[in-house]
Amino acid sequence: MGEPAGIGGEIALSAWRRRGDGVPAFYMIDDPDRLAALAAQLGWDVPVTRIDAPGQAPAMFRDALPILPVDGKVKAGPGRPETADAALVIGAIDRAVTDVQSGKAAAVVTNPINKEALYRAGFRHPGHTEYLGELAGRLYRKPGATPVMMLASPELRVVPVTIHLALRQAIDVLTSAMIVTAGRVTHTALQRDFGIATPVLAIAGLNPHAGEGGSLGREDLDIIAPAAAELRADGIDARGPLAADTMFHTTARRGYDAALCMYHDQALIPIKTLDFDGAVNVTLGLPFIRTSPDHGTAFDIAGQGIARPDSLIAALRLAAEMAARRASADRR
Amino acid sequence: MGEPAGIGGEIALSAWRRRGDGVPAFYMIDDPDRLAALAAQLGWDVPVTRIDAPGQAPAMFRDALPILPVDGKVKAGPGRPETADAALVIGAIDRAVTDVQSGKAAAVVTNPINKEALYRAGFRHPGHTEYLGELAGRLYRKPGATPVMMLASPELRVVPVTIHLALRQAIDVLTSAMIVTAGRVTHTALQRDFGIATPVLAIAGLNPHAGEGGSLGREDLDIIAPAAAELRADGIDARGPLAADTMFHTTARRGYDAALCMYHDQALIPIKTLDFDGAVNVTLGLPFIRTSPDHGTAFDIAGQGIARPDSLIAALRLAAEMAARRASADRR
Q1: Residues B164, A276: C-beta atoms closer than 8 Å
Q2: What number is the ipTM of this complex?
């Protein structure tokens, strides 16, 4: 469901309407009445149909959008979040993970949430991804799962090693250990979930021209180079630190499977420049597959039916592909 | 000429060979013998012809590459710079600026130099651009000219407000005044040299999502927003600070004429991702027009004839366009 005041509902309805375009079967964990009302209000012919169990979804998906109801009525309207909905938002996430954990569903795809609305209701996690990490520990009895964010598009995969931090703080907290962890988790996921037998990782330098041998900053030599060496010692084909400005053009991108970036914009600028609508947020390092559209709740346009479902559709497709590859890898 | 051990000679020969593709007439300030030898070695039929004055160049350009000789013989070979050549490298820059200052040429296009080789010979400027700023003061009696670097491609124009600094240092030195100066110089150049009557400037935030109202760093509120306000008070259409990751996709780029970026990679990542071979380095804020290919000396491939002349050709074309627009603007 995600935040019901955002565009999550309408992009899910849109995605179902484009099911002929190879959108894999999905069910929503949501309030069926609010989705039926939204479809009616937009004038979209989407038969919103209540299900009792995930197993009912595949057979009906061609003719109706299956909804596993959340435990209550959504109160929010478009652009107007309600603190009272927080328990439903979190309950939908919990149910999705539980369904995957019990083998009833193949992957979790999350619609955007609004952290402020959840915080007001007592949510205490820095974000969606961290909460999923906590659920992984609780439901899978695997504490210490390290969620690693990847943004993936057909053109490029990037992994920001630091994420939602002021730029100065990102430089301050960056360590070799963080890069090594991100590199290992990415390498494993590329093999298991992306079907790449011998992944190549490109590691971006922090400073211009990767520091030019130390004359433009020491971090490339002191933090990034040792991390790259440690990954190589693990048998991972990790290149770098590389000059970030020459890593993302067409020819350069052919040389690696994922780029590890040192800060938010170093990762987000190239992928959003290349593919603004179709990039998918993937959380690696969890015991279950989780993807998400690479955009927010977009309160400003919610309820108008103009939000593009491209990123949600890409997230659904990628989740299905990853689940098929993981199932096949795990059988071997 | 630029650094004679680099690829400057061969890309100039290549550019002349593609003169049918709308490459404007140019002359080189170089050593004619070394260029003739280079053409012969590469098996390229380029009649390298000595001239005494720039005015001889246009008439002969169709049939021969005009060379105004530097004051001595180049000693460097491909990939092997020689300290003894430094005076010739600097002399070629001086002569180019003098020719433009005296109205004999329309614009300066510089091939890449190797700073280390010049430093060993006593050169004391941080780089090419700063040296041109000093020449502007000396030859045009306009001390205090502020050179501002722009990278321009058909897709995007970016102006890095800080350039060759470690990322941490770029954050430390960034001031509102630097952004305002870069904005004013860029605005003037877009009008005078790019023919844009009412330019729109997009100013990038420093932190992720332009700091999210201060929760991800204060610089966007404390440094960048006041600079944007000051530019707007000047009557300049300056937007921002904007989230840098969503500024560079196709639709976003249509909304502005140049992006002011806060650090090297924030500017260079998007333009090199979009147009790796065809971006041009333009120095704004000088009393003469100066462009340059957006790459280095490439010692590793020098002398092989494989270096792409695309960026030099784009630099020649852009210089000619800017000169025509400036002449037309100055007549009005």
Answers
A1: no
A2: 0.91
The minimum CA-CA distance between A248 and chain B, rounded to whole Å, is: 5
Half-sphere exposure in the Cβ direction for A240 (13 Å, CA)? 39
Q: In terms of pTM, does the model score above 0.90? A: yes
φ, ψ dihedrals at A281, nearest 5°? -90, 120
Can you list the domains of chain A with their CATH numbers?
1-144+288-332 (3.40.718.10), 155-274 (3.40.718.10)
Which of A132-141, B168-177, B269-278, B291-300 bottoms out in mean pLDDT, i.e. has the lowest? A132-141
Whether the per-residue pLDDT at B144 is higher than 80: the answer is no
> Which one of A172, A269, A308 would you mutate to disrupt binding with B, by most B Cβ within 10 Å of its Cβ?
A269
pLDDT tens for each residue of A311-321: 999 999 999 99
Instruction: List the end-to-end C-alpha distance of chain B, in Å, as a whole number.
Output: 34
Residue of A273, A274, A294, A311 best to disrupt the B interface, most CBs of B under 10 A: A273
Buried b (16+ CB within 10 A) or exposed e, A226-240: ebbebbeeeebebbb
CA angle B202, B203, B207 (to 5 degrees): 135
CA distance B99 to chain A (A): 34
Q: What is the pLDDT of residues A91-110, one digit of tens each?
A: 999 999 999 999 999 999 99
Strand A157-160 and strand A258-261: the pairing is parallel
DSSP code, position A194: T
Q: Is residue A332 predicted with pLDDT exceeding 80?
A: no
Tally the residues of chain B: 332
A215: closest chain B residue by CA:
B166
Residues 241-280 of B with CB under 8 A from A: 244-246, 248-252, 263-266, 268-270, 272-274, 276
| Residue A121 φ then ψ, to 5° | -95, 10
Q: What is the pLDDT of residue B128?
A: 83
Helices and strands, number each (H, E), in chain B: 13, 11
B171 and chain A in contact, CB less than 8 A: yes
DSSP run (H or E) holding B108 = strand B108-109
B208: contact with A, CB 8 A cutoff: yes
Q: What angle do CA B114, B115, B118 make, to 5 degrees?
A: 95
Q: CB atoms < 10 A from the CB of A272, how many?
A: 25
Query: Nearest chain A Cα to B275, which residue?
Result: A249
